[in-house]
Amino acid sequence: MPTARLDDRAIVSVSGPDAEHFLQNIVTADLDALNPGEAKPSALLTPQGKILFDFLISRNGADRFRLECRADIADDFVRRLALYKLRAKVEISKQDESLVAVSWGADSTASENDSGWLRDTRFPPSSPVWRSYVDCAADGDVAGWHALRVANGIAESGTDYALGDSFAHDVLLDQMDGIGFRKGCYVGQEVVSRMQHRGTARRRVLIVTGDRLPLPGTEIVANGRSVGTFGSAADGKGLAILRIDRVKDALDAGVPIEADGVPISVAIPAWATFTYPEQASGEEA
Question: Residue 216: exposed, middle, or buried by beta-carbon count in 10 A (0-12, 13-18, 19+)?
Fold first, then answer.
């Protein structure tokens, strides 16, 4: 069971008698469905529905939540959350020492019986991944963790997309229970709901393979048109947020999809439920 320490992650704590109500009204995840022992994906959006901050949220005792995010955005995240505090009885802070570790592998089910580990719900139960927020032995390779993440189509900001540029559907939050479609309003909810009910999500994370994968940020094209941008790569696979209608056009026409002049193949993550459009429109977004 490899275990890797993630030193580029930080923990933001939100606690107090109003903590759950406060977070429920601003983040995408439905906290009514957040069980103890789970770390669930979520985001704080702009009013226009773009992702400002992405994170994993978990319960940390009564009236206390743990928000795991990138270390380099943690201070900005705390300040942004504080803007929404108003008169809510909550305390928001960044932990001085953030101990974040991740564990995976065929025998990782052993972690299920350890109260110090939480299941990362972005990954399917058939391939469980566990996260720890206490000091623990780390014998795994961080590169191995990123290879696992990429192979499963799990995009993260910084490496795969820029904050402020992508919608929640683009990075598959709707596919991994990171959006509460039945809960009340939250920041950006109107845009997210409209995209969901109208089925207008065109940009999606796809897994990329090829003889030579491009550098992050490389434009991916088909038939002379941009279909998206390449993100991160690990162990021969990469992630890209692509226009799936244009990908479908290219696949139907037998037109190669290329990055930096090299043909690539793209695939929907095995666990995802979305499909390519039955009839790709090819229209501009």
Answer: middle
The total of structural domains in the chain comes to 2
Can you list the alpha helix ranges (DSSP code H) found in 210-272? 244-253
How crowded is the C-beta side of 84, counted as CA atoms within 13 Å?
21
What is the CATH classification number for the domain harbouring 59?
A: 3.30.1360.120
Residues 117, 12 share a domain: yes
Nearest alpha-carbon partner for 235 in 209, 267, 259, 260: 209
Spatial neighbors of 151 by CB under 8 A, at least 6 apart, are 207, 234, 235, 237
Which CATH number belongs to the domain containing residue 262 in this structure?
2.40.30
Mean pLDDT of 253-271: 96
Give the pLDDT confidence score for residue 139 in this predicted structure.
82
For residue 239, being part of any structural domain is answered with yes
Instruction: Judge if 228 and 142 occupy the same domain.
Output: no
- pTM score over 0.85: yes
Hey, is 92 helix, strand or coil? strand
Given pLDDT bands bounded at 50, 70 and 90, which one contains residue 282?
very low
What's the gap between Cα 53 and its chain centre? 10
Considering 15-24, 101-110, 136-145, the range whose residues carry the highest mean pLDDT is: 15-24
Cα dihedral 210, 245, 275, 194 in deg (nearest 10): 130
C-alpha to C-alpha distance for 33 and 133, rounded to whole angstroms: 21
Residues 226 and 115 in one domain: no
Q: Say if 189 falls within a structural domain.
A: no
Q: Are residues 122 and 224 in the same domain?
A: no
pLDDT (mean) for 107-115: 53
Section 244-265 average pLDDT: 96
List the domain range (segments joined by +) for residue 218: 202-267
